[in-house]
Amino acid sequence: MHDFIFKNNRLLCENVSVEEIARKVGTPVFVYSRKALLDHYRKLEQTFAEIEPLICFSMKSNSNLSLCRLLVQEGAGLDIVSGGELYRAKKIKAPAQKIVYASVGKTPEEIEAGIKAGILFFNVESLPELEMINDVAGRLRKKQRVAVRINPDVEAHTHHYITTAKKQNKFGIDLKTTENIFLNLRRRFKNLDICCIHVHIGSQIERVAPFIQAVKKAVKLIERLNAHGANITHLNIGGGLGIIYKKEQPQTAQEYARAVIPLVKNRGLKLILEPGRFIVGNAGILATKVVYVKDTAVKRFIIVDAAMNDLMRPALYGAYHEIVPAIKRKKMTFRTADVVGPICESGDFLAKDRRLPAFLKQNDVIAVMSAGAYGFSMSSNYNSRRRAAEVLVSGSRFRIIRKRESYSDLVKNEVIGNE
Ligand SMILES: Cc1ncc(COP(=O)(O)O)c(C=O)c1O
Question: What is the value of pTM for the model shown?
Answer without folding.
Answer: 0.97
